[in-house]
Structures are given as C-alpha cells and as structure tokens.
From TrEMBL:
GO terms for molecular function: metal ion binding; oxidoreductase activity. This is Fe2OG dioxygenase domain-containing protein. Belongs to the iron/ascorbate-dependent oxidoreductase family. InterPro entries: DIOX_N, IPNS-like_FE2OG_OXY, IPNS-like_sf, Oxoglu/Fe-dep_dioxygenase_dom, Plant_2OG-oxidoreductases.
Length: 290
C-alpha cells in the first residue's frame, strides 16, 4: 500500500460512508436499508378472484385468466379470494386438526379428498393456450389423488437458528394452503407471505411445471417458526391418479423450438422418490429434467 506525500497511509481503499460499519455506528439507525435486508416484506403475492372465473362477461373472465397465468409464470403462488368455501368450515377444519395433533403429540394427517379445483385448472389450461379440459383429460383427474396434510410448529426458543420446513417445492399440480409463517422465494429473495382472512394460498406444484414444459414454475418455499405461539399449517395437494405418467403436454412441445424439458414419470414413482429423500430445493424435479 503506497504512502502519500504527507506520510499518511493511502485511504482510497477505506470503506465509504454508507457501509455496514457506518450504519451500525449511526445514532439514528432505526431500520436496515432494503439492500442489506435478507427478507423482502414489501412485496405482495398476486390475488385471484375465484368468482370471476365463472363470470358471464367474456372480457372480465379473460382478464382474470390472464392474471392467473401471469401469477403462475412470475410467482408460482397466488392468493385465492371469493372461493365460496364458508369461513366456518375452514375454521372447523383447523380446529379438528388442532384437536388431533393435541391428542397424538404432533404428526401428519393423510386423507384423500375427492373434490378437485376444476375451475382454476380449466383456467390454467386456457392461460396456456390450450382447451379448458386439456389438463383434466391429460391427467385423468376424475380419479385424481389428493392428500390433506397438517403440520404442527410449536414455539421455538431460538427461531433464528431453526427452520420449520426447509426450502422445497411440492409434488402435484396445485397445493392449497392455510398457513402462517410461510415464505416463498421470488427473484432470489425470501418473501414473507401475509394471507388475508378467509383466503387460500395456492402454489403451483412440480407436476404443473412438467405439464407446462417449464412455462409455469413450481416455487421454492419454506416455513419459519416463532418463539411465541404454536402454529398449525393445513395443505391439500391436488395430483393425478397414482399410475398416471406425467410428461409435458404434447401441444406445448415442438422438436425444433420447444423441445421437451422433462422425462415422463409415473406419479406414484415421483412421490415414492420424494418421500424416501430429504427435502432439498427442487432436487426431485431435477431428477427428471432433460
């Protein structure tokens, strides 16, 4: 390091005003500037009005389908409002799961549901430029496989050092969540998800990414814990029947311009592989990536 004519050490490499040290020593520091923040809490996930999918106005319905497609492509997550499920039923379901977990000391509830979110699957098909029934037919959703999972997150004495659920993506087409403490990865930043009352959080699963040949992405998300209150999450995974081989939809594959990005794989095999390995980002999807 060179010396100046005055004999002082050259200072051109000293940290400039605005570095972390300067901020820490500032007497009026009350918050961390956004460029130093690991979390991004200012962003809000897209909101989709479920009732508009049944709108008799072609323009109104077209607009919400475009919004739905954009949410799946850019976020992989959206908040569903006006879904028609009574709030009392949602609260009752959470209460039932809470009672079950209290009796057993924690765990998971695995239950098959027969109902399928046909309206927004139809809208997703249309947003991809396909016929409304395309995903339904391709996945034979009349015999779909659904799982209800409830997880218990008790208070943690050191929440900054623990994780309720590590970063991962989910199997299936869609996952509906009633969830607090959820964070999703958007453009490389972890975003805190703040759901409005009486809403569903919906995220695209690995198999919608496969079906859409990568146009719609499953999204990395994780669950954080706190040191104040017990939290219960409730998630419903919507997938095809277990013996269905899931591959990119033929209409979205072109050997020259849009080659297939994923190998086909039986849904049952995908679940078995996922259940036999630790959650690790999108490693399960990477296994069948071409």
């Amino acid at each position: 390091m060179a010396a100046t004519a005055s004999g002082n050490v050259e200072t051109s490499f000293r940290p400039k005003i605005g570095c972390v040290k300067d901020l820490a020593e500032s007497s009026d520091l009350t918050s961390i500037p956004s460029k130093y923040s690991y979390y991004s809490t200012a962003l809000q996930i897209p909101t989709i009005d479920f009732s508009l999918l049944n709108s008799t106005s072609p323009d109104q319905r077209s607009k919400v389908i475009q919004d739905l497609g954009k949410a799946c492509q850019e976020w992989g997550f959206f908040m569903l409002i006006n879904h028609g499920v009574p709030e009392s039923l949602m609260e009752g379901m959470l209460a039932m799961c809470r009672d079950f977990l209290d009796q057993t000391g924690g765990g998971e509830v695995g239950v098959c549901w027969k109902a399928c979110p046909e309206n927004y699957l139809k809208a997703i098909s249309e947003s991809l430029g396909l016929e409304g029934s395309c995903i339904d037919k391709a996945m034979e959703l009349e015999s779909c496989f659904q799982i209800l999972t409830s997880n218990l997150y008790p208070p943690c004495p050191q929440p900054d050092l623990a994780m309720g659920m590590p970063p991962h993506s989910d199997h299936g087409l869609f996952i509906q969540n009633q969830n607090g403490g959820l964070q999703l990865n958007h453009n490389g930043k972890w975003v805190n998800v703040h759901a409005l009352p009486n809403t569903f959080l919906v995220n695209t699963g690995d198999h919608l990414e496969i079906l859409s040949n990568g146009k719609y992405k499953s999204v990395l998300h994780r669950a954080v814990v706190n040191n104040k209150a017990t939290r219960i999450s409730l998630a419903v995974t919507h997938g095809p029947c277990l013996d269905k081989v899931v591959a990119p939809v033929a209409e979205l594959v072109d050997s020259e311009n849009n080659p297939a990005l994923y190998h086909g794989m039986m849904y049952k095999e995908y679940l078995e592989f996922q259940q036999s390995n630790q959650l690790n980002g999108k490693s399960h999807l990477d296994r069948i990536r071409i």
